[in-house]
Amino acid sequence: MSSAFPAMKILQPLSTTRSPEKPLFDLLKSPSSFLGSASKLRFNAQKPSPSSSYSSSCHRPSTIVAVSDVVKEKKTLKSNSSLSNLLITKEEGLELYEDMVLGRAFEDMCAQMYYRGKMFGFVHLYNGQEAVSTGFIKLLKQEDYVCSTYRDHVHALSKGVPARAVMSELFGKTTGCCRGQGGSMHMFSKEHNLLGGFAFIGEGIPVATGAAFTSKYRREVLKEAGCDSVTLAFFGDGTCNNGQFFECLNMAALWKLPIVFVVENNLWAIGMSHLRATSDPEIWKKGPAFGMPGVHVDGMDVLKVREVAKEAIARARRGEGPTLVECETYRFRGHSLADPDELRDPGELLNFVILVYFVFPFL
User: Fold this and answer.
1) CA torsion 289→10→266→192, rounded to 10°?
2) Is residue 54's pLDDT more than 60?
3) Distances from the Cα of 140 to the Cα of 106, 240, 257, 334, 345, angstroms
4) Which CA distances in Å does 322 have to 12, 133, 220?
5) Which residues pair with 298 in a beta bridge?
6) Hey, which residues does 147 pair with through a beta bridge?
7) Is residue 307 in some structural domain?
8) Is residue 59 part of a domain?
9) 13: closest CA among 63, 78, 81, 84?
10) Which pLDDT value is given to residue 14?
11) 357 pLDDT band (50/70/90 cuts)?
């Protein structure tokens, strides 16, 4: 972990938070507070012997269990440094709350219009992940860039694109932000430096890397005064197995580009569990492999996300290079509105909703 994140002592990687005195086998035998098919798939991948204890020899640390158990434990660990960094003004708190409520209400209305037959095509909603978009984008300046995915409505709203323009785009109207030509997966706004959503996973990362290179070139070669713009590249956990991801991490680290790679790890790539699609489920570890900081954060907590985002964006603006941030979150709907969401265990979603709305707020 880089020294640029002093407040991240309470946000250590999930695999290091379990007590070494508690054997992994005991954890697997006891019913986890995180129910669902993902954890079942995880446990079937490797079952240690009863005598084995948790150590670095374990091939896959239990990340899914940590969604509820470890993140909950972290919320009870308070330090002076973390508390000071989490302090916000009343105005800032209202801004964060309003942005998340706008995103949720907007997506819920999209679902209503889609099921009434008023909206067509593939529509991917952001319900449950609002803290990531709000925590990062509301810290940006007007001249900073955002590159999104096919799940891009809320990113556009957080960047300042009017809700009317985004909704009009979804209806295919000429008053939309892309004059009705882009639709749900291709939101774009030159005025707000929203570089677009991309229907194919990973295709936005090279675009974001190019935007970051442009900022560096303008500042260091063209000597443009005050050019310190930063780029945010949003993508999901499934994208992290694609070639563009690794190529752009390498280039960004090599040239110290002012970019933050934001992984919205909602634990599912369409209907494929994250734990079945990657050899190491802890995505943040890929950052240090390329010489950049890698940080894991609870993506359901907007203040924690904002805390990490502030450090990462500041690093990029100072010219210290990129950061890889893994935000562990969860989508409350299917992959798209055409997805009946039958591959996830209903108990998984229910348990997550209970934790988010009835447990975490009181810690």
Assistant:
1) -80
2) no
3) 22, 24, 16, 30, 37
4) 19, 18, 16
5) 328
6) 233
7) yes
8) no
9) 63
10) 36
11) low
Domain range for 156 is: 91-342
pLDDT band of 168, cuts 50, 70, 90: very high
Residue carrying structure tokens 């090599």: 254
Look at residue 9 and tell me whether its pLDDT is greater than 70.
no
pLDDT band at 46 (very low <50, low <70, confident <90, very high): very low
DSSP H helices in the chain: 24-29, 37-45, 63-76, 80-86, 90-115, 130-137, 153-158, 163-170, 204-220, 243-255, 274-277, 286-289, 302-317, 346-354
Q: Tokens standing for 328? A: 């562990």
Distance CA 285, CA 63 (A): 13
The verdict on residue 229 lying in a domain is: yes
Mean pLDDT score across all residues of the chain: 79
267 backbone φψ class: left, alpha, beta (φ>0; ψ -120 to 50): left
Q: For residue range 218-266, list pLDDT tens digits in order.
A: 999 999 988 999 999 999 999 999 999 999 999 999 999 999 999 999 9
Q: What is the C-alpha separation between 326 and 312, in angstroms, rounded?
A: 12
What is the structure's pLDDT at 248? 98
142 and 202 Cβ atoms separated by less than 8 Å:
no
AA letter at 49: S
CATH number at residue 164: 3.40.50.970
Q: How many domains does the chain have?
A: 1
Per the domain annotation, does 157 fall within a domain? yes
pLDDT at res. 160: 96
For the chain, the 3-state helix, strand and coil shares in percent, each to the nearest 5, are 45, 10, 45
| Token output for 261 | 């790679």
Query: How many helices and strands (H and E) does the chain possess?
Result: 14, 7
Alpha-carbon span 285 to 134, nearest angstrom: 24
